[in-house]
Amino acid sequence: MPARSVLTKTPSSISRYDPRQLTDEELVQHAHVELFHITRAYEELMRRYQRTLFNVCARYLGNERDADDVCQEVMLKVLYGLKNFEGKSKFKTWLYSITYNECITQYRKERRKRRLLDALSLDPLEEASDEKAPKIEEKTGLDRWLVHVNPIDREILVLRFVAELEFQEIADIMHMGLSATKMRYKRALDKLREKFSENNET
């Protein structure tokens, strides 16, 4: 889902480079100079992370329709926020911090929507009957088990296993202490192991 370049010509004042050969940090530096007229560095950053970004959103939110919406919003926020990104953390950490906040916003929005539908005695599943996006319960592997933990623990597991972030990076993104993050991670895994064991016994 790379963004479309605003301009097709590169100003002669900016040297040509192969964005695929640069590190994230070097691409960020180029983006500081180029945006918003040239999006070459930005597009490469998005290309590197778009698949994992989508997987993180889909596993947290539970369906691909909402995940796609959140991904688009995240990409816009990155586009307009790159010039102000100071590099105090890794680009990847900053990206998933934005993703986490957008997922939380979307999750709360959907939860309020379902409460309204319940109050009106409507079936939320009936409203979404035309949607083809698969629900998280229908998937296998990690998705199958994420429904058994609360949203915060789910995000910790997703950031750890899908985004492959370090515990300190996850703690920074979720504004939690490192020990608290590790504790919640361990408890979530213990809960999933217990659930898995119960299923195997039945």
Can you walk through the features of this model?
This protein folds into 2 domains: 18-120, Rna Polymerase Sigma Factor, Chain: A, CATH 1.10.1740; 138-201, Arc Repressor Mutant, subunit A. Helix content is 65%, strand content 0%. The chain is built from 9 helices and no strands. It has helices spanning 24-34, 40-61, 64-81, 91-119, 124-127, 142-146, 151-161, 167-174, 178-201. The N and C termini lie far apart (43 Å).
Describe the structure using short key phrases.
elongated; Arc Repressor Mutant, subunit A; disordered N terminus; 9 helices; 202 residues; mainly alpha; Rna Polymerase Sigma Factor, Chain: A
- CA-based shape: elongated
Total number of helices: 9
Low-pLDDT stretches are: 1-13, 119-140
**Run of helices and strands:** HHHHHHHHH
Kindly state the number of beta strands: 0
CATH topology of the largest domain: Rna Polymerase Sigma Factor, Chain: A
Q: Return the average pLDDT rounded to an integer.
A: 80
Helix-strand makeup class: mainly alpha
CA-atom Rg in angstroms: 19 Å
What is the distance, rounded to the nearest whole angstrom, between the alpha carbons of the first and last residues? 43 Å
What is shown here, in short?
This protein is an all-alpha fold. The protein has nine helices and no strands. The protein is elongated.
Any chance you could write out the topology, listing elements then pairs?
Elements (H helix, E strand, L loop, with lengths): L23 H11 L5 H22 L2 H18 L9 H29 L4 H4 L14 H5 L4 H11 L5 H8 L3 H24 L1
Helix pairs in contact: 1-2, 2-3, 2-4, 3-4, 4-8, 7-9, 8-9
